[in-house]
Fold this protein.
Amino acid sequence: MPAIERVIPLVNQLPTAIREALVRRLRELAGLGLLTLAAGAAAALMTWSVQDPSLSHATSRPIHN
């Protein structure tokens, strides 16, 4: 029994073609979520500066990112 059928019991009553399409769309959404998370992490790393103040680095300079 696939995980989606355990989480959403009504999925068992759907036709196979619709069920497979639903699973594909959920996988696509999960992939888009991972891409969004990776893009956010990349943006955070690109704007990182050693000169920015933090809990372990005190400075009177303004924040760059």
Q: What stands out?
A: The mean pLDDT is 82. Residues 52 and 58 are 8 Å apart (CA to CA). Residues 3-46 form one domain.
